[in-house]
């Protein structure tokens, strides 16, 4: 998620066999990552006096520093270096770096401009966007109830568009950029998630440094001009960006994906609560109806997945599995 800022779409590399249902550390790490993304607006609100693209630049710069420091402490710098000898993986990570940059920038803007409710909507929509990407880009087939879920979600978006007079651009930008990010990331084979994040930040780093340098040259740079507390917050924004992604990469390898799928809604739920109760953003009946459609779609999709997951396998499939 961005912001979540880049939250959770990073695919996990296959690790040693672990009993996922008993791994409490994996559950804790994943839970902490979603908790961090859910409370991220509180942190970004402290940076509201800093222009959006400067916040974005500092997030990239300091996240890059912290991620490479982490890899160095674990003796895994070579994993990141090897990616530069894999042109196909590198080209895909260049694309994901661009997508996550868009996602982070829109999310920072949404918090600064009082649109955290819209941001939370984006991350509620995101799973269904991923479903549609599978349909259009992978020719995946949906069953009747999955189509019902997607249709109900579409009704919610159309309702908001008609009532507000425009599409919920921030929500759609976050959902689509993060959905595409996760889709492309899943095709990057043989690269550890944390190493991939390191490469993404390196690829964005020149642009971040150039922008921060340009703003400083113009005399508009926030760093060093808004006090040591603000400087510390800008530096720590990299840690706030990197740590949840590292926790997620660790945890998602150790617990069932179905559990991850249910836990992911904690982040936008916390964002919505924060926006309405702490930031005082309006949550009108119009928005409630739109959100209710999205929530209903997610419930339908989750129940369908649960039922299909518990359905007995065809005899032929069972025999094939036993023969293997």
TrEMBL record:
Protein name as catalogued: RarD protein, DMT superfamily transporter
Swiss-Prot/TrEMBL keywords: Cell membrane, Membrane, Transmembrane, Transmembrane helix, Transport
Membrane-spanning ranges: 26-44, 56-73, 93-110, 116-138, 145-162, 168-184, 191-212, 232-250, 262-280, 286-303
SUPFAM superfamilies per UniProt: Multidrug resistance efflux transporter EmrE
Membrane topology type: Multi-pass membrane protein
InterPro entries found in the cross-reference section: EamA_dom, EmrE-like, RarD
Pfam families attached to this UniProt entry: EamA
KW Glycoprotein (keyword) present: no
Endpoints of the signal sequence: none
Family of this protein: Belongs to the EamA transporter family.
Chief location category: membrane
Cellular-component GO terms for this entry: plasma membrane
Location in or out of the cell: Cell membrane
Keyword Electron transport carried by entry: no
UniProt xrefs under NCBIfam families: rarD
Domain of life of the native organism: Bacteria
Residues annotated as domain EamA: 26-161, 170-300
């Amino acid at each position: 998620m961005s912001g979540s800022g880049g939250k959770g779409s990073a695919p996990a590399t296959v690790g040693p066999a672990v009993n996922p249902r008993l791994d409490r550390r994996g559950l804790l790490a994943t839970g902490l990552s979603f908790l961090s993304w859910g409370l991220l607006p509180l942190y970004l609100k402290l940076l509201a006096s800093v222009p959006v693209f400067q916040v974005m630049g500092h997030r990239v710069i300091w996240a890059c520093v912290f991620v490479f420091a982490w890899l160095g402490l674990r003796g895994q710098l070579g994993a990141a270096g090897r990616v530069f000898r894999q042109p196909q993986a590198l080209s895909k990570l260049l694309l994901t770096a661009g997508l996550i940059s868009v996602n982070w920038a829109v999310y920072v803007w949404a918090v600064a401009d009082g649109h955290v409710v819209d941001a939370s909507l984006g991350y509620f929509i995101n799973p269904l966007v991923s479903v549609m990407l599978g349909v259009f880009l992978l020719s995946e087939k949906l069953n009747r109830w999955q189509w019902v879920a997607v249709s109900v979600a579409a009704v919610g978006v159309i309702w908001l568009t008609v009532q507000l007079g425009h599409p919920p651009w921030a929500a759609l930008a976050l959902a689509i950029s993060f959905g595409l990010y996760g889709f492309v990331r899943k095709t990057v084979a043989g690269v550890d998630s944390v190493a991939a994040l390191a490469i993404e930040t390196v690829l964005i780093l020149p642009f971040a440094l150039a922008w921060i340098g340009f703003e400083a040259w113009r005399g508009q740079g926030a760093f060093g001009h808004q006090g040591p507390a603000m400087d510390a917050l800008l530096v720590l924004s990299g840690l706030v960006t990197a740590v949840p992604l590292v926790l997620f990469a660790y945890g998602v390898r150790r617990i069932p994906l179905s559990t991850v799928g249910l836990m992911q809604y904690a982040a936008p739920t916390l964002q919505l609560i924060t926006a309405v109760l702490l930031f005082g953003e309006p949550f009108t009946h119009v928005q409630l109806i739109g959100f209710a459609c999205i929530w209903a779609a997610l419930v339908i999709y989750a129940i369908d997945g649960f039922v299909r997951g518990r359905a007995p396998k065809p005899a032929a499939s069972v025999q094939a599995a036993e023969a293997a």
